[in-house]
Amino acid sequence: MTGAFCQRLVVALLAASWALPLYAYDPLNRAEYLAKIKEAKAYYEDKCEKVAGIRILKGIESDILGDGSLDYDEKVLERFDFVIASVHSKLSMTEKDATQRLLTAIRNPYTTILGHPTGRLLLSREGYPLDFDAIFDACAKHRVGIEINANPHRLDLDWRYLRTARERGVRLCIGPDAHSVEGLDDVDYGLGIARKGWLQKDDLLNCMDAEELLAWRRTK
Ligand SMILES: [Zn+2]
Predict the structure, then answer these.
(1) If both were cysteines, with which of 35, 57, 70, 128 could 62 make a disulfide (CB 3.0 to 4.6 Å apart)?
(2) pLDDT of res. 25
(3) How many Å lie between the centroid of ligand 1 and the Cα of residue 212?
(4) Number of folded domains that form the chain
């Protein structure tokens, strides 16, 4: 089983200027999950053709494994317009190990966004320690965005780091981490955190249109 806690199949409605996880699916097994990806991709491609004026981008959340590699191979990842790479296991790490793990994931050419970067759960789990200077510099260099996970149990990246991230040239991305339609409303919490961290429109991937985002991503 891979990413059972938080594996998201993400569809972004960027014509509406928001990248929102629209469809969540927790896999029972890898084969079933891959089949579901194929089915969902065909479904949304069909929708793309029928809904004028809206471009739908297809993304996926991929697990960052212990060595920093992603749990899906290139043949899977290349099917998507963007990939959110996140840690969901082996959360007890030293700062050095956690930083190296994330740096490897950031250098992966398929990684578009680093999801819930510290793994914290408010009131129940501390995030793993990170060398944020190294993470921000690597994200800026490799053009990897960092998620502001808007789930109220996460709110990760913490608002206190947002000004430093933007000053280092990092783009942020508000993601509600929705596992249901109702969960999309959590984007409001992310917007509040972005404001609290003094972010501007240009700091957010959500505020790019589809062509801007794809061009930004293609510069890797
Ligand atoms: Zn996740």
Answers:
(1) 70
(2) 45
(3) 25
(4) 1
